Every structure is written in C-alpha cells, then in structure tokens.
Amino acid sequence: MPLFMDTHTIKGATADAVAGAHKKDLATQGKHGVRYLKYWLDDQTGRVHCLVEAPDKDAAVRVHREAHGLLADEIHEVKEYS
C-alpha cells in the first residue's frame, strides 16, 4: 500500500492536542482503508507530520476531515528506503 507524509501547520499545537487528534484518526481510519502509522510535532513552529498507509491521498484526507477537521497543508507520496 502506498505511504504518504502529510504536513499541517497548527498554531499553538500541543503534544496533548496532537495525541488527541491522532487517536481520532485511529478510530476513523479503518472504514477508509487507511492506517496512520506515526506522527511528529515541532511544538516551536506548530508543524505536525503524519505518516500514513492509504490507497490514495484522498483516503488519507477523508480520515482527517471526518476525525477532527484538521486538514493537511501538503501531502506527498513517499517511499521508505532504509
């Protein structure tokens, strides 16, 4: 399944708030055929990055939209080479 990395910029983002949004993604992802794997927060800039397995970009977007409404500024397909 393709991997995607999305980026959000959320002013005032906190670790607790991002963890809560991630839990909502996990609760919603199954019905869209998506699996959110990891997320990262830079609390100095409010940038959040999410790594997700999804059939396509739109499926990943649907999960965020339904789960909490925090849509990504960018989303890119990535490949792991490590």
Q: In terms of topology, how is this protein built?
A:
Elements: E1 3-9, H1 15-28, E2 35-42, E3 47-53, H2 57-67, E4 74-78
Antiparallel strand pairs: 1-3, 1-4, 2-3
Helix pairs in contact: 1-2
Describe what you observe in this structure:
This protein has 82 residues and is an alpha+beta fold. The chain has one domain: Alpha-Beta Plaits. It contains 2 helices and 4 strands. It has a 4-stranded antiparallel beta sheet, with helices on one face. A hairpin with a 4-residue loop joins strand 2 (35-42) and strand 3 (47-53). Helix 1 (15-28) packs across helix 2 (57-67). The two termini are 17 Å apart. The model has no long low-confidence stretch (mean pLDDT 96).
Put the structure in a nutshell.
The protein has 82 residues and is α+β, with helices and mostly antiparallel strands.
Supply the helix-strand structural class. Answer: alpha+beta
N- to C-terminal distance: 17 Å
Number of strand segments: 4
Query: What's the average pLDDT?
Result: 96
- Spell the H/E element sequence: EHEEHE
Helix content: 25-40%
User: Major sheet: size, sense and barrel closure?
Assistant: 4 strands, antiparallel
What count of helical segments does DSSP give? 2
Strand order of the largest sheet: 2-3-1-4
Radius of gyration: 12 Å
Name given to the CATH homologous superfamily? ORF SCO4226, nickel-binding ferredoxin-like monomer
Unreliable sequence segments: none
Which features does this protein show?
single chain, 82 residues, alpha+beta, Alpha-Beta Plaits, four-stranded antiparallel β-sheet, 2 helices, globular
